[in-house]
Amino acid sequence: MALDTPTPELNSLGFAKAPKDTRVLVAMSGGVDSSVVAAQLASEGYDVVGITLQLYDHGAALAKKGACCAGRDIHDARRVAEEMGFPHYVLDYENKFKESVIDEFADSYLAGATPVPCIRCNERVKFRDLLETAKDLDADCMATGHYIQRFMGKEKAELHKAADGDRDQSYFLFSTKQEQLDYLRFPLGHLTSKAETRALAKKFGLPVADKPDSQDICFVPNGSYAAVIEKLRPGAADPGEIVHMDGEVLGEHKGVIHYTIGQRRGLGIGGREPLYVVKLDVDKKHVIVGPKEALATRTVPVREINWLGDAPFESREEWHVSVRVRSTRAPKEAIVRPLSATEAEVELLSAEEGVAPGQACVFYETEGTRIWGGGWIWRGY
Fold first, then answer.
1. Is the pLDDT of residue 57 over 80?
2. Mean of the pLDDT values across residues 252-269?
3. What is the pLDDT, as a whole number, of residue 236?
4. Is the pLDDT assigned to residue 216 strictly greater than 80?
5. What band does 62 get if pLDDT is binned at 50, 70 and 90?
6. pLDDT for 345 beyond 50
7. What is the CB neighbour count within 10 angstroms for residue 94?
8. What would the mean pLDDT of 284-294 be, rounded to a whole number?
9. Residue 276 gets which letter from DSSP?
10. 286: enclosing H helix or E strand
11. Predicted TM-score (pTM) of this structure
């Protein structure tokens, strides 16, 4: 376990008292990561309380594999708690999850955006509602299995990328508020590979040691976003036209919700040069396509900014940082120009393709590992 503050007077979670006198709530998804966190802390003698969230219909969840917080996962989390000897509770957050995450996901897709519901879940459910529950239980802190690091800086707790770049989850945690970061702990962030996590699971004899990682968004079966949207918003898949950016109508589509910015496959308009989705016009029900170079942009409007820097966001006219505009992309150098405390224009020093409204734009220290925060990409009008 990495120390938040490696000081002899403090325990491994950064508190000046014995582990047995330190209560920590562990958010347990039922997967190997959070299970290892709970087991490790319990083995160190901490007063561990495990909590698993039921985020959607339990009956439907039982028949679904490969996603977090499903019925099997609740069972797995309970088994880990029983074997390691700490209490475990399941909280029904289904209504909160629908109101805070699923409804916005559906509405964003209908508006032609490409939302990232996992970020909203961390922001509005795990790090807001569950964190308040942890405080109600008199926990000193809340620990999760996320791959990200928290260090104590000169001014305050800082958020840093995970040691394992392949598993770094900073893109999904940029909206963590400072007061939440003060309370949170991420014990896996220092590990250099998933193999280390699984080795710890085997060391503790956990039944989830070989459990596969979840791949899908928990409420999106088989990765079919459109199927979920049609179920949540009947009639949403209205047909329309596929239009070249020069105005030529090339064909018909079965609903804007089936397309995302940057998509090339499945357009059904063969016989021309390779074309990509460059824009979605929901009002006209148009899927607008064009050549690959039309996807490139250097200007990214960002709002709902969460700033984790030491100085106020508006204290400078420009911040020279690196930014990530998709979870699968590497950070690229950019200049962030604040327009207000929560809005900015981001200038990419080299053009990026497929920048889509609804995705996050995360700010990073260019010559280091610190996360400065980030915001949400929008159309700018």
1. no
2. 88
3. 75
4. no
5. very low
6. yes
7. 15
8. 93
9. E
10. strand 286-290
11. 0.89
In this predicted structure, the answer to whether residue 4 has a pLDDT above a threshold of 70 is: no
| pLDDT at residue 248 in the model | 92
Which of the residues 68, 118, 121, 361 is marked catalytic?
Answer: 121
Tokens found for residue 14: 């950064």
Residue where the block lists tokens 């039982």: 62
Nearby residues of 110 by Cβ (< 8 Å), 6 or more positions away = 229, 233, 236, 256, 257, 282
Residue 121 annotated among the catalytic residues of the structure: yes
DSSP label at residue 212: P
| Residue-wise burial string across 227-253, b where 16 or more C-beta atoms lie within 10 A, e elsewhere | ebbbebeeebbeebebbbeeeeebeeb
Q: How far apart are CA 41 and CA 24, in angstroms?
A: 8
Note whether 242 and 253 are within 8 A (CB).
Answer: yes
Please give the Cα distance from 126 to 141 (Å, whole number).
13
pLDDT bin (cut points 50, 70, 90) of residue 3 is very low
Residues 6+ apart with CB under 8 A from 119: 171, 172, 173, 174, 175, 360
pLDDT in tens, 30-45: 999 999 999 999 999 9
68, 69, 218, 361: the active-site residue:
218
Give CA–CA dist 37/1, Å, rounded: 9
- Other beta carbons less than 10 A from residue 139's beta carbon: 21
141-143/184-185 β-pairing: parallel
User: Is 69 annotated as catalytic?
Assistant: no
Type of residue numbered 217:
I
Please name which of 70, 143, 130, 67 lies closest in space to residue 100, comparing C-alpha atoms: 130
Question: Taking a C-beta distance cutoff of 8 angstroms, is the pair 359, 114 a contact?
Answer: yes
Q: Which residues are CB-neighbours of 268 under 8 A, at least 6 positions away?
A: 242, 251, 253
pLDDT tens for 276-288 read: 999 998 889 999 9
Quick one: angle between helices 194-203 and 32-43, nearest 10?
A: 50
